[in-house]
């Protein structure tokens, strides 16, 4: 009975007795969730254009952030370094399209998926060669990102909000909204969905796979850069960030691999669920729940709704 009380009742008693701590936990989960959603959008972009999960998106987050910091350390002013990093991500998109995707048009999805594995390890090796393997500090002040925190008195206690978290949530929300409009309302967005459905059909109606892939990979690169800046400002810039980026996988499982709204909802569920689980249920299992809870939630969805909350159910008739 004590175990059942600790699992099913005591956490909710704690939430009711200290609502200020609950609000603090929910806020931290919300920020993490929005950033997870931003990471997941990078995966959604590539999946919509090729129908393949882009394993390289995680290292693209690291590579973009390392490029920005590396250019600044080389003496390039911060804003110019940001512009040059965007140019580097465009060149990366062109290189991927010319050297990886174009030779593999109409190949099985598993071939494209394995190609993203190769791209991942190429970027890891190239990044370590150029920037080294040591963690770096994000140039927060130089990019005019705020520091410090603001406090609010709430429910008899205080809730502290880091200014960088507020900024990250705002920037990520704007990018998510802009990409949602891009997918649904623009000609390129419709062409992108057509490419995802069938490469041959898209080619037959005059859609250029080459242009679409460059646009999509470049947009995914911009998303990776924004994600790297925000995560780097909250911690540091290192190759460990690619592990955080892979949290997008359970987000995609929850929301659906082809759904922008699904990425948003899935990110929020994972972010808030992790923080609540770590704070209220973590002591029962010795903490560390934040590192695996997302995958347990994703496993539950795979068992009962494998297409995700907003994903398309594919029915194949035999």
TrEMBL record:
Pfam families: BPD_transp_2. The keyword Transport applies. It is found in: Cell membrane. The chain crosses the membrane at residues 29-47, 52-72, 78-101, 110-131, 164-183, 212-233, 239-272, 279-304. CDD domains: TM_PBP1_LivH_like. InterPro entries: ABC_transp_permease, BCAA_transport_permease. GO terms for biological process: amino acid transport. Keywords: Amino-acid transport, Cell membrane, Membrane, Transmembrane, Transmembrane helix, Transport. One of its GO terms (cellular component) is plasma membrane. The keyword Mitochondrion does not apply. It is a multi-pass membrane protein. Signal peptide: none annotated. One of its GO terms (molecular function) is transmembrane transporter activity. Belongs to the binding-protein-dependent transport system permease family. LivHM subfamily. This is Branched-chain amino acid transport system permease protein. The lineage of its organism: Bacteria, Pseudomonadati, Pseudomonadota, Alphaproteobacteria, Hyphomicrobiales.
């Amino acid at each position: 009975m004590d175990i059942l009380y600790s699992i099913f009742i005591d956490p909710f008693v704690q939430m009711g007795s200290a609502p200020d701590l609950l609000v603090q936990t929910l806020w931290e989960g919300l920020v993490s969730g929005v950033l997870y959603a931003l990471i997941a959008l990078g995966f959604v972009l590539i999946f919509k254009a090729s129908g393949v999960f882009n394993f390289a998106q995680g290292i693209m987050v690291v590579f973009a952030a390392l490029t920005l910091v590396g250019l600044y350390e080389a003496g390039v002013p911060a804003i110019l370094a940001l512009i040059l990093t965007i140019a580097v991500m465009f060149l990366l998109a062109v290189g991927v399209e010319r050297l990886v995707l174009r030779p593999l048009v109409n190949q099985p999805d598993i071939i494209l998926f394995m190609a993203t594995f190769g791209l991942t390890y190429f970027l890891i090796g190239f990044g370590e060669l150029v920037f080294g393997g040591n963690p770096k500090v994000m140039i927060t002040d130089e990019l005019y990102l705020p520091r410090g925190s603001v406090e609010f008195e709430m429910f008899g206690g205080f809730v502290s909000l880091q200014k960088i978290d507020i900024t990250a949530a705002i920037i990520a929300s704007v990018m998510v909204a802009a990409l949602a409009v891009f997918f649904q309302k623009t000609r390129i967005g419709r062409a992108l969905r057509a490419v995802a459905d069938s490469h041959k059909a898209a080619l037959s109606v005059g859609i250029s796979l080459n242009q679409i892939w460059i646009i999509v990979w470049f947009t995914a690169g911009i998303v990776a850069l924004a994600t790297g800046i925000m995560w780097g400002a909250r911690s540091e810039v290192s190759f460990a960030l690619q592990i955080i980026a892979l949290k997008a996988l359970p987000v995609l499982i929850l929301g659906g691999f082809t759904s922008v709204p699904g990425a948003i909802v899935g990110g929020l569920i994972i972010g808030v669920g992790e923080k609540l689980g770590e704070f209220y249920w973590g002591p029962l299992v010795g903490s560390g729940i934040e590192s695996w809870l997302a995958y347990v939630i994703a496993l539950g969805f795979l068992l009962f709704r494998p297409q995700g909350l907003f994903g398309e159910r594919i029915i194949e008739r035999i």
